[in-house]
Protein 1
Amino acid sequence: LPRGSDPQLHAWIRKINASAASAADGRKVRYLDIFPRYLDSAGQLNKEAFTPDQLHLSLKGYQLWATAIEPKVKELMAE
């Protein structure tokens, strides 16, 4: 997830996420990019999704997470 407001930090997190995504085989290891859901239309951290420390999720942040993963969880449960 993104954190803080430093664009360089966001770029570094995206690089790590890309590395994690490359490990996904689609069978046993899956990757779901939910990073963009935590940014506003200007590409800045959605402050409503985080607590004031810009690291920990707020209730809205957890709701965004749940909404993002729910379809995949349902799919996996059906398997």
Note: The helical segments are 7-22, 59-78.
Protein 2
Amino acid sequence: MLKRYALPYGYADLIPFISAETMHLHYDKHYAGYTDKANDELLRLGVDADMQEIVEKRIYNFGGFYNHSLFWYMLKPTGQGQDYPMAETARLIERDFGDYAHFRTTFLDEAKKRFGSGWVWWVIDPITGSTEIINTPYQDFPEMTDYGGKLPLLGIDVWEHAYYLDYHNKRADYVEQVLDNLINWEYIEERVIKAKSLI
């Protein structure tokens, strides 16, 4: 059975960029709902369920659980940690985007392009080692066959429940504030190093 990951910080620790009210709603309602419904489906399917079918065909609740379980760790409390990419992360960004400014602009543009609910991801191709920024609808995730089995290095939730109480319809402002103030670059560095070791 799936178990909700504990938040690695307090509900109010992302203020003023994300409110405690938003975090309560996001974690206690939406994430809890995805986890509970995914567990209900696991019970219904039974122990002999094909994992590939679960991942590819019954994506919604499993994706909601998985994406959010990553997302909590991709954020850090306001004013703590490093506010810019670390060594291996910075090298990948410079190699594939030229510099962080272009990476940031590309990420924001992809967030604006995501029509409706979904996610924006910086991903690495496990075969070529190249990275790119993509968006996925709803609770799809980059490892799915449709997206080439890419590994997520950084992701931001752009469902309205992640930002609407704080930013209303200004999604780009929310993504910009998260990129500039809340990314846990230490955790992203760990993901980059691990992903590169698998290539």
Note: The CA atoms of residues 56 and 146 lie 9 Å apart.
Protein 3
Amino acid sequence: MQYSEKVMEHFANPQNAGVIENPDAMGEVGSVICGDIMKISLAIDDATETIEDIKFQTFGCGAAIAVSSVFTEMVKGLTMREALAISNDDVVTELEGLPAVKVHCSVLAEEGMAVAIQSYYEAHPDKTPPEGLAEKIEHLKSVDPHAEE
């Protein structure tokens, strides 16, 4: 199994690892049974709904860690709606590819972001969540082999 230099760089030197104290949103996805778990914490500017900061904790393989790192770099500074538009395919492209058996790790990042964003809107019932958010989460769970049953 061959990894790109970019995957190896993000695995060896992950960006944005850790937890945000008192986050505005949290998303945790994966499964202890399968072995990959990702937790994303967000600091959100309420006025603009922009991701001011993002941190991750990932328990899993090197690909899962690299995906988490590059994904956080890709979405920091975006609005939550813009971040939802980042697909797992975009993450794989940014990493210059992943072995086919590791592409599921990129789905974990996309799902973790969607769950975190959903938690934000649940905590802010006065705000309108992006259209199709719940459906996106259900779809990602259906294609994520790590999703909890």
Note: The helical segments are 5-12, 62-75, 80-84, 88-94, 104-123, 133-143.
Protein 4
Amino acid sequence: MNDRKIRSTIEEGIATKQRFLAECLPSLTQFCDLAISTLRGGGKIMLCGNGGSSCDAAHAAGELVGWFEHRDRPGYAAMALGHQVPALTAIGNDAGFEHVFRREVEAVGKSGDLLVGITTSGGSKNVLLAMQQAKEMGIATALLSGEKRGACVEHADVSVQVPSANTARIQECHLVCVHIVCAAVEDAFANTH
């Protein structure tokens, strides 16, 4: 890759984040507030996604259970769905891959929890079914997606839609969302430990 291509990729990332800031600040604030209120109410945060979005889900759960910036705090209740390989393969094999997250929500979710669906397209079938299951169980839902209005947005209490159709740029902004929500949660509980 030449210098010009590297420069244009970074500039595109910066431009996307500037649009993201201009357009998504209110929804990102709502997402942070929902995560905080979930944990304050004794609920847990469940996250799910495919591929790179699965990694974002695991990253967020790891930061919340472990720590982000504040080391002197208890762990917060969070989990990434789809990371239990025996359950993932059994559900995928017996019921179909579209049910892997839905079944986990059914098994471990409860009213007062929050399900965060992460999908760059906004329409991943397994994320959609998980969000539908969550709504049926009285579980709050949040969506991190791109600008395309996929079916998942119809089942989200809060939707943060990155203003881009480029998967890599969307994922870069989703990582920003993960870090912002982790920082917001830690800040909200900083004086309560």
Note: Residues 3-40 form the longest helix (38 residues).
